[in-house]
Every structure is written in C-alpha cells, then in structure tokens.
C-alpha cells in the first residue's frame, strides 16, 4: 500500500507510463514507454532529475558485458542519480514527498557476512542499478528502498547530488588508502573517478596531490579539483617528476584509477618505503605484472577498492560546503531522448569528454 497522495504527486498518480532509454542490443538505445514502478512498503518513488553517464554504462553499451556481468535482455542503464520523492511507501517514516534526494544505487541483503561486518559493498547478493539484470535510471521514475535515499540541502544542485555516487568511490579510495592530513598522494588517471578522488584527497587534508594523465585538458581540471602538481605522461617521466617533487623520498600513497597496466606499475614505483597503494581502476588485462621485489623491499601495502560503503552522508556534507566545485567535471548535457547520442559522444570524443549528464525530466 502507498500513503495518501498529495498535489505534489498528482501528475504521477494520473500517469501510468514513463519514458525510458533502453539498451536493446549492443550500441542500440531506444526510447520506450515503460510502466511507472509502484513503490513497495519500504520504498519511495522518485522523479529522476539528473543521471551521470558512467564508464561502466559505456562498457555495457559498447560490449554488452563487464566481466561476468552480461546483458542478456533489454536493460535501462544509469546509476548516478538524483531526483525528487513523489510517492512514499506505507512503512517509510523518515522521508516525505517533495524532498530532493541523492540515491545510493546498490540494494544489499543486510544479512550476509559482509553486510554484518559493515563492508556491505562486498555483498554477493547486491542488486545494483544498471548492473545486469537490474534496470537503472535513464528513465523518468524509479522506485528505491528508502534506506538508500538521502535528502540533500536546498543549496545543492541535482547535478552535484548525482555526482555523490562517483565521488563516493573517491572518498572510499582515500579512506582505504588511510590518507592522513599532511600526507602526499599521487593519483593515476584524471578521468571522472580520478578527478573526484583528487577532490576527496584535497578535503582529507593532503599536503601534496599529484595528478597524472596523458591529456593536458584533464590535468588542467585536476588543478581546479585540488591537485598541487600534475604530470603529463606525453611529455614527462613519472618517476623523474615524483623524485623531483618529493626530493627523492617518494609518496605516502598512490591511487590508481585509470585501469591501465602502466599506471598500476607506476604506483609501485612512486610510493616511498613503507608506502601504500590503492587500486580502483579495473584493467582490461586480468593479470598485470608487478615488481614483487619492489613490493617486498619497500614493504608496500596494496589495497583494492570495490565501490564504497557508508559514504553518502559524509559525501553529501563534504560537497555541501562548496570548498570544491565538483560540477567542473561535467562537460556535456543531454535530454533523455538524446541518450544514444550521449553514449556515442563518450566513445568518440574521450579527449574533450569527462562527465556527461542526462536529464530524464
């Protein structure tokens, strides 16, 4: 059952269908009519306002799979979401119609070992938006479990609220890397995840933040996100510049976000003895050669990062203070009807494209 409707959700009550951008086969997205979902007792219905286009969305669009996750039937992509609550399930007491919200896209079981341990990002039963077989948010309305829906301040835009999801990856990467105020960090790859990780490192109090990439335009944005130094690998040598910037000592922490074999190897070379490495990016090669002698001799701690946990309240608070304008990573904006064009833009213009934002309503 659903709570009594008000004027605020009257338009939803009168409509039964919505528009959705549906991936029907590889590199083919169709605008279709779908039934507006009915929220369960513990869910809310959200009118979607902004959705970020993620690299994983592009991978499903272009290849039809990521690892063991295979698109076997038409799917709605998109998991970086913000919007407005328009209906509330009968058991939901801490949310209300009209609230502007950011959405955590992974519904975990809450009962397995990992959920009970507090690392629910490792839950094997997670139902994650836009990960086969679960539909995502490139549509006008979605129903979400209430505990995954977080109100945002009136001063926060829908765009920033949608970017809470990728920013959470950066927050978790910095946390896994145990970055302390006053420490030094290098971040490999200045794509959207690398850039928001720069912002997270800045807010964590890092003294030196080095952004590394092949594209100068991305390095320029990295400076706006909080990087103190940059290294352009087309012109500069990573190890030489790290020695120069750290007086030969090396860095406390290296974070790899590029999903690149050379970047993984660069993290090992960049950190000091006793340093730490955090790997976020997923390399196309399942196995990447690394210098075991370097890892052992320098006694390096290496950590993997898978999504995030318990980041949303903190991330919303961090971005609400406007210390860093996270929206500087947004380079393109499209309507829902132009979703297919947005995907093609992401594929064919990687140099000039960072984060694409899509507006279903």
From TrEMBL:
Q: Does the keyword Glycoprotein apply?
A: no
> What are the required cofactors?
Zn(2+)
Q: Which InterPro entries match?
A: ADH-like_C, ADH-like_N, ADH_Zn_CS, ER, GroES-like_sf, NAD(P)-bd_dom_sf, SDH-like
Q: In its keyword annotation, does this UniProt entry include rRNA-binding?
A: no
Pfam family membership, one = ADH_N
Q: Which domain of life is it from?
A: Bacteria
Could you tell me the keywords of this UniProt record?
Metal-binding, Oxidoreductase, Zinc
Enoyl reductase (ER) domain: which residues?
A: 24-358
Family, according to the entry, reads as follows: Belongs to the zinc-containing alcohol dehydrogenase family.
Sorted alphabetically, which PANTHER family does this protein's record hold? SORBITOL DEHYDROGENASE
What is the name of the protein in this document? Answer: NAD(P)-dependent alcohol dehydrogenase
What is the native source organism of this protein? Answer: Metabacillus herbersteinensis
């Amino acid at each position: 059952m659903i709570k009594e409707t008000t004027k605020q959700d009257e338009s939803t009550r009168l409509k039964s269908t919505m528009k959705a951008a549906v991936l029907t086969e590889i590199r083919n997205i169709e605008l279709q009519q779908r039934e507006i979902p009915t929220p369960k007792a513990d869910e809310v219905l959200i009118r979607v306002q902004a959705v970020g286009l993620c690299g994983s969305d592009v991978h499903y669009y272009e290849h039809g799979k990521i690892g063991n996750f295979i698109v076997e039937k038409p799917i709605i992509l998109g998991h970086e979401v913000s919007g407005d609550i328009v209906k509330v399930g009968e058991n939901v007491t801490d949310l209300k119609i009209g609230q502007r919200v950011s959405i955590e896209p992974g519904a975990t079981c809450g009962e397995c070992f990992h959920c009970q341990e507090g690392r629910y990002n490792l839950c094997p039963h997670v139902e994650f938006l836009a990960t086969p077989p679960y539909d995502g948010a490139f549509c006008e309305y979605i129903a979400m479990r209430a505990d995954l829906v977080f109100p945002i301040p009136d001063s926060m835009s829908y765009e920033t609220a949608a970017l809470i999801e990728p920013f959470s990856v950066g927050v978790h990467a910095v946390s896994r890397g145990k970055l302390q105020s006053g420490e030094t960090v290098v971040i490999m790859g200045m794509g959207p995840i690398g850039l928001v990780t720069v912002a997270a490192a800045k807010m964590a109090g890092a003294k030196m933040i080095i952004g590394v990439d092949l594209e100068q335009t991305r390095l320029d944005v990295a400076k706006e996100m909080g990087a103190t130094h940059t290294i352009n690998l087309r012109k500069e040598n990573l190890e030489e510049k790290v020695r120069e910037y750290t007086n030969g000592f090396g860095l406390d922490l290296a974070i790899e976000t590029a999903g690149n074999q050379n970047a993984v190897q660069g993290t090992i070379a960049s950190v000091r003895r006793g340093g730490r490495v955090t790997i976020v990016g997923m390399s196309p090669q399942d196995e990447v050669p690394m210098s075991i002698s370097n890892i052992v001799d320098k006694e390096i701690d290496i950590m993997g990062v898978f999504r995030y946990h318990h980041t949303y309240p903190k991330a919303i608070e961090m971005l609400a203070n406007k210390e860093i304008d996270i929206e500087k990573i947004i380079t393109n904006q499209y309507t829902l009807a132009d979703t297919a064009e947005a995907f093609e833009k992401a594929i064919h213009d990687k140099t000039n494209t960072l984060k694409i934002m899509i507006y279903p309503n």
